[in-house]
Amino acid sequence: MTRSRRILRLALFGLTPILCLGAEMTAQAGTRIETKAFGKTSTGESVELFTLSRAGAPSVTITNLGGYVVSMLAPDRAGHTADVTLGYASLPGYLADNSYFGCLVGRYANRIAKAAFTLDGKRYSLAANNGPNTLHGGPTGFCRRVWAAKVKSGTDGDALELTYVSRDGEEGYPGTLTATVVYSLREDGGLVIDYSATTDAPTVLNLTNHAYFNLAGEGEGTILDHELQLEAEAYTPVDATLIPTGELRSVAGTPFDFRKPVAIGARIDAADEQIRFGGGYDHNFVVRGAPGTLRLAARAVEKKSGRQLEVFTTEPGVQFYTGNFLDGKTLGKAGKPYVKRGAFCLETQHYPDSPNQPAFPSAVLRPGQVYRHTTVYRLSVAK
Ligand code: BGC
Fold it and tell me: Which H helix or E strand runs over 39?
């Protein structure tokens, strides 16, 4: 072997471990996403599962059917992991889902009164799928669609990008809307949900994620003893069909005052007209601080396990829903019944029925504008 060859060989040997180490470090930095087949829809579309993992963060699995958060695995204070989101054991459960167990709701999350609205002088009719009102984008809203999925790699590892193009007139809404949602994991364990959308004609829009949480673990009884703090001085009271009256009512002196941590169950059956209309909590709270800035909206703690959920959002409101319509008939991922009030949702969003409420922050999107919002669900162990 010539001297120069020997030097080359030595140099390569010397480099190999460095190269391998380098590759390993790159692979482990930030978030990693593993992709698996989940099954096929009735029309033969393939659906996948994406598992996001990162050191120090809960492992989160998402499917591109409706963008459902399929599971979030979080340790308790003793290090025991539980799945804290409700859902189904397999794809057929999600295909038949009527509870919106963790999906991306659109085109308009929450209710639109009498299934109609007027925009720029034109009346649009929607399908009434909740008494006289439209709920969660109508019978075939964004939760029931297969979104195009892409794993994107950046300096902080992988992120999951889901895109859905909703055609002009779909479910009665005007304008072709392109909605993109990026799921990623932050270094502090937060699941970040970045929404953006554009349209080719004026439309209304309200996107959210409808994750149901039970911090003791999915199917582990009710959430009545979870303590909740809501960063809200006011909420939007509703009529008997859960449409806001237009008032922003102070929470002071009412069962809606969560400015200091209170057990969810403490006043959930109070003799209060609003509680009666909701069958418990099913109301939109006005999040303190400026919409457009990412700020804390809510913190929930389950004391026995020590698990804590913090919700941050740029949206003006958050719908606090206590699973009042769950009835124990649905069996969850581990076969346990999802009982009444077996979970809570904190759906970050514009106020319900904003398209018919000129005094509420506008939910109108016009061509040339970009709709954006960010929500973070951060699980940790309470100190
Ligand atoms: C609504 C509830 C509804 C639930 C499931 C919530 O966002 O406010 O009234 O039952 O979603 O559809």
Answer: strand 32-40
